[in-house]
Amino acid sequence: MKLILASASPRRAELLQQMGLEFDIKAVDIDESVDAGESPEAYVRRLALQKARAAKKFYPAVDTLLLGSDTAVIVGADILGKPTDKQHAFDMLRRLSGRSHTVLTSVAIIGSEELCIVCQSEVSFSMIDEQQLEWYWASGESTGKAGAYGIQGKAAVFIKRIEGSFSGVMGLPIYETSQLLKQQGFKL
């Protein structure tokens, strides 16, 4: 059975490699806009499924599994996406400073059936001052990351506590992913 990661995320690829899996990558481009009235959970679930479905078009064989995933940082009812520029990143990090937020990561696997789960984690940040914002922005790590931070990098200095899945906050919850793969008959 062949596994295809429907993502250009190097973090997701690293996590699959950490699991000891062999896979190919088929990055797909989908609209990541939030639909009107869409809940954060429905949003990440929809995007993970759309990514896997879009990649499935290139791999119609029944012995191929397509894995799509999406991560969103949630503050209150707001979904913090990827920053568009320095000011946007600073605005997001200021919102996260000194408080807890939710990280939702969905995993969809399409094979003989469509399976999808959403993993929820809570992350508590310390207070972040202006000098730290500048330092973190200069690291380049804010770019392309939901909520303008990556837990696996320098932003770890801001994190007081995490409840849930560390790998889920990174972008792919390993335990949940392994369970979905097993349900699809994939040998780990």
Task: Write down the Rg.
Answer: 17 Å
* Main β-sheet description: 7 strands, mixed
Give the topology string: H per helix, E per strand. Answer: EHEHEEHEEHEHH
What does the overall shape look like? elongated
CATH topology: Maf protein
| Strand composition percent | 25-35%
Question: What is the β-strand count?
Answer: 7
Number of helices: 6
- Rounded to the nearest angstrom, the distance between the terminal CA atoms is 11 Å
The helix-and-strand class reads: alpha/beta
Q: Tally the structural domains.
A: 1
* CATH level-two architecture: Alpha-Beta Complex
Can you walk through the features of this model?
The protein has 188 residues and is α/β, with parallel strands linked by helices. The chain has one domain: Alpha-Beta Complex (Maf protein), CATH 3.90.950.10. 33% of the residues lie in helices and 26% in strands. It has six helices and seven strands, in the order βαβαββαββαβαα. Strands 1, 2, 3, 4, 5, 6 and 7 form a seven-stranded mixed sheet that branches. Strand 3 and strand 4 (78-80) form a beta hairpin. The protein starts with a strand and ends in a 5-residue tail after the last helix. The mean pLDDT is 96.
